[in-house]
Structure formats: C-alpha cells, structure tokens
Beta sliding clamp
Amino acid sequence: MKVLILKENLEKALSIVSKGLSLKPQLPILSHLLLKAHHNQLELFSTNLELGIIYTTPAKVEKEGEVAVPGKLLTEFVSSLFTDKIELEATEKNLLVKTNKTRGNLSVGNPSDFPPFPEPSPVSKKLPLIKIKDAVLRTIFAASTDEGRPILTGVRTVISDSKLFLSSTDGYRLSKEEVDLGAKLQPLEVILPAQSLLEMIRIAEIIKAEEVDFLIIENKNQVVFGLPHTKIFTRLIDGEFPNVEKIIPTGFKTKFMVNKDSFHQAVKTTSIFARGSANIIKIKIEKDGLKLLANTPQVGSEEDFIEARTEGEEIEVAFNFRFLLDLLNNFPDKELVFESLGSLSPGVFKAKSEKYSFLHIIMPVRVQS
C-alpha cells in the first residue's frame, strides 16, 4: 500500500474513526485501525466490538493494499506533524509515515485479524439531525453507565407514524423526549446504546451532516447510522426495557416555576457544601420561593434563596445535586416547572413552553430531619 494524502483529510478521518477504538481491548487488534487504499480513496475502520466506524476520504493511491496500525499512536503522530501532505507506505512489518522532513515507522498488525463488518442493505430510514440531535442529547445523559445492567445503558427508541420517542433511565432518574419527524416512517422499536448515539451525534457535528440514514441489520442484531463518507455500526441491546410510564405521576400537590439560570446557579453554589454529605441538597418549597440548603459538618453549611412561583403544599425535598446539574445542563427552556406529590415521590421536571416535550424525573433522597 502506498498513499499520498492531505494532512487535513487524514487528521479529520483519524479524529472520527478513533472514537471507535477500544480503550481496554479484549483483543490486541482492537487497538488498531484498519486502513484500506483503493480507487483513489482511503478507508479507515475501527471497532471495539460494541461500536464500529468506517470513514472514507480522498487520497492519491499509488499502490492499493491494506494495513492494521495502532490507532492512538498514528493519531498522535499525525497531529504533531507540520506539513500539508503525508505519504503512507505499508510493508508486512511497518507503516512508513513520511513528510518532506519527518519519517515515522510504526509496527503493524495482521489485517486479517481485524473483525469483519457486515454489509448493510441500501434500504434505510432518513432522520433529520436538526430535529433529533437535541432530543438525543437530552435523553442519553440519564442512561446508566453500569454494564452490570446493560438494558439501562440504552435508549428506548420508538418510531410510530411521524413521531420519534426516546426514553432512558438509570433507575434513579428518567428522561423522555418526543420529536415530530415531519414524515411518516415504518414503525420501529429498539434499544440503542446511549454511548453509540452520543458518538453518532459528535461525528455528525464534525462532518456537518444534516440527516442520518438509519438501518437495522436483522440477522446481525445491529444498527447502521449512515452519514456522509461515514458508516457507524452499533449493536442493539437485547432485553425488556422498564415500563417507565408507571413511575410518572399523574398529578401534583406541590408545584413551582423558576428561571432555569437562577436555579442552575443556586444549585452550583449550594453543591460546594454538599460534596461531603453524599451530594445531597435540600430544597424547601415555600410560598414566596425556594430555599436550597446543604450541610457538611466538617466543612460548613450554606443556604440560598431564589424567587419562584409556587402552588400547593409547602414541602422539603432532597436530591443528589449531580442529577440536578446534569438536568440543568441539558434543559431546553428558560423556565423550569417542577411538580411533586410529596417529599418522597418522584420529582417531575419539564419545560414551561409547550413547544418542548422534554420530561425528566429524579427520585428524591430520603434524609433524616
């Protein structure tokens, strides 16, 4: 294999496919990228057996061929080079990365050891990224990162008529979102890994994609996201997703409406004093506003007051401040609405504006008086 390529193109390609590299590879080859040169283009492949990425970039191919090369090393080396063009030349033992001033020899693996990628069908659903991007980001942060319960590391994804429904939960919080796709599509119900959805959105931003193709490979239990010059493969998660509708309260006894930015700042300030007490912040909902309190005996205590419009009973409810900050960092509206049936009932957070269908639930913490 011998290829001449613009550094800009190679660096962009590596930034994309490196997202599929395995950090703790089960097999040594999973720390490698597979490079294939043919038809005046360079294809780059990566996989960690959960997520696989193929990216194609133009190149001048003087000799076709393929090579498996350590991905992190190649990415770091290429990014350090000051040049416009890079020559790649592979032998059975090395990949020579050459500029007019620099030569790097990288040891290579056996390309035949690299896991094969399934060939997707050309039939797929097209989803508008401008409509689904924010909905995905507002959902995935509530998914679990605990591989001990794999079903909770996914996002339940349902397409019905012209609507996309997303929901995720880690057992302590729940995010739900609904998107009007603008066109009727074939029905679908799958559970997609939250991390794969996040990487798809990140890659789409890099290449400025406006829509994504969505295809299920039935016999492989995989999904392919198609973006310009890019295919992203991810497994489907098997299992029964929790019936999250059961935990969503149907009414409230206490309600407040507050400016999101004011609430966000108050939570950040109060959290400084909550880190040594299991991250717990208490919120007292009173007639004229909210009191946020935190107390760590070895550190001190703090109380913050913010104005809010309140309805119903005055209560005190406690939350893990990290869950509140995650919510507020992803909240879509300027005004936040909170509803609760009591101190130990799920706290419901939603936007004031009806244009947002986002709904988030956080389970409160039981604390001693």
Notes: The mean pLDDT is 94. The CA atoms of residues 1 and 153 lie 40 Å apart.
